[in-house]
Design brief:
The protein is α/β, with parallel strands linked by helices. 32% of the residues lie in helices and 27% in strands. A 6-stranded mixed beta sheet has the order 6-7-8-3-9-10, with helices on both faces. Strands 2-1-4-5 form a 4-stranded antiparallel beta sheet, with helices on one face. It starts with a strand and ends in a 12-residue tail after the last strand.
């Protein structure tokens, strides 16, 4: 088995100071496509926040892209996050800047200085998500699906080992959600980038197969292939 990019062993997951998941065990390797599913309030997003070192890991073991989460130093957190791409439900684009300026902002914030190299990388990621003609537009001039494609392009800028996607189709209609899922599965297949996706949408994880972790009753446990997931998850 390939070395894990993300691993948890007997980890308690916090939301603020309250434990929402006890004893999480999870191993995610290069090329994995992993769903974290469950009802609202079962700790799905808290796992994501722990992976990106936004929530502390106080009990158990956790490691992400070579960084131990237990007692991670504040100065190391930006370096950890450079190895991850994060995609949010609400896009989180800077509305007063063009798409190119949005992407340039991230590159500068993560240490890029060469203007030509930045221009090349922006062109590459926009081409990868089919948005190469939109670099001059501002987010409000794009549809929701186009904005999410830009958010995915942003997540690819530093060639991440994994993309962490928190309900990336949550604000999109069915057709647009399918477009975004095709794009994520293409990135996963062609780049070997691991995808970790939080969703409450059963139709998504049934249509686009992957490993499925179910959050329920203060636990998060991987379901085996073919096992019925007995959750009232919406379509």
């Amino acid at each position: 088995m390939e070395q894990s990019i993300i691993s948890f062993h007997d980890a308690d997951i916090l939301n603020s100071e309250e434990t929402v998941i006890f004893g999480l065990n999870m191993e995610i390797a290069k090329g994995d496509f992993v769903y974290i599913v469950g009802k609202v309030g079962t700790g799905k997003t808290s796992i994501i926040r722990t992976i990106i070192a936004e929530n502390p890991l106080m009990k158990g073991e956790g490691e992400v892209c070579g960084y131990r989460l237990n007692g991670i130093r504040k100065k190391d957190i930006p370096y950890l996050r450079r190895k991850l791409g994060v995609v949010f439900q609400d896009f989180q684009l800077l509305m007063d800047r063009t798409i190119e300026e949005n992407l340039e902002f991230v590159l500068k914030a993560t240490g890029w200085k060469d203007r030509n190299a930045m221009d090349r990388r922006i062109t590459e990621v926009l081409k990868a998500v089919g948005m190469e003609t939109k670099s001059h537009k501002k987010p409000h001039q794009l549809s929701g699906g186009e904005q999410q494609r830009i958010a995915i392009a942003r997540s690819l800028l530093n060639e991440p080992e994994a993309i962490i996607a928190d309900e990336p189709t949550g604000n999109l209609d069915l057709e647009t959600a399918n477009d975004i899922m095709h794009l994520l599965t293409k990135i996963n297949r062609e780049n070997g980038t691991a995808i970790v996706m939080v969703t409450h949408n059963r139709s998504i994880f049934e249509k686009y197969p992957g490993r499925v972790f179910v959050c329920k009753d203060e636990k998060c446990i991987e379901k085996m292939e073919g096992e019925i997931i007995d959750l009232a998850i919406t379509i």
